[in-house]
């Protein structure tokens, strides 16, 4: 059975998009039955071009990616999530909707690479470093025996990953 993972950020334009791309990429590469989705509490309606560039630079196809509301994932017929990850502090502090199935929730915070100094060069570097940090945690998630872990055990492992 597919393990669905929802990754949240406020605007769903940068960190959550990087996370969705990296988790889906590594899951395909490793043959894991995991599917990542991303959304925002207040979606911007556009994707950060530096996030798309960072993913494209490692061969990740972002066709079909869009900035979307987390409301899409509470509607009837939405994929049932096993894990919900917040990747920005403001989203972590917000009151999240009720997620059907009571998924395991964890916060894996990353600084906003959009705020990097140094013009476009500085932003590109910040997005690449953020992509690498996200990719490392997503690889750790994919090493877990997701099909056999209880929610309590999964919570423990995800909390440990948050400190890596």
From TrEMBL:
Gene3D superfamilies: 3.40.50.2300. InterPro entries: Ptyr_pPase, Ptyr_pPase_sf. SMART domains: LMWPc (SM00226). Keywords: Arsenical resistance. Residues 3-144 form the Phosphotyrosine protein phosphatase I domain. This is Arsenate reductase ArsC. GO terms for biological process: response to arsenic-containing substance. Pfam families: LMWPc. It comes from Ralstonia solanacearum.
